[in-house]
Amino acid sequence: MKRYKDPKNDRYQFLVRETLNGYSIEVLIVPTGDIVGLTLSNAASIHVTIPKPYRLQSCTEEAAEKQLDELAALNGWAAIE
């Protein structure tokens, strides 16, 4: 599963997780271990640029990871191996 981080801010990691309705893009808050969905309001509060159109949830893991890749490219995030 893909995972990204902002090289300038290691407080957050961004990943895709399986949910009841498919797959969603989530934010791991590293210091606390909390995980929240990357909603428009959450993105604004942590200064993440969101592409248009943006889907928080997708039916397939591949579609969610494609959206995560777009977010990573737009925000200059680095992949975590």
Features:
single chain; 81 residues; alpha+beta; 2 helices; globular
Count of DSSP helices? 2
In helices, the fraction of residues equals 25-40%
Helix/strand/pairing class, anyone?
alpha+beta
How many E strands? 6
* Average pLDDT rating: 94
Residue ranges: pLDDT <50 for 5 or more in a row? Answer: none
DSSP strand content: 35-45%
**What composes the largest sheet?**
6 strands, antiparallel
Rg measurement, Å: 11 Å
Distance between the termini: 9 Å
Order of helices and strands: EEEEHEHE
Please provide a brief summary of the model.
The protein is an alpha+beta fold and 81 residues long. Helices cover 26% and strands 38% of the residues.
Any overview of this molecule?
The chain is globular and about 30 Å long. By secondary structure, the chain is of the alpha+beta class. The chain is built from 2 helices and 6 strands, in the order ββββαβαβ. Strands 1, 2, 3, 4, 5 and 6 form a 6-stranded antiparallel beta sheet that branches. The mean pLDDT is 94.
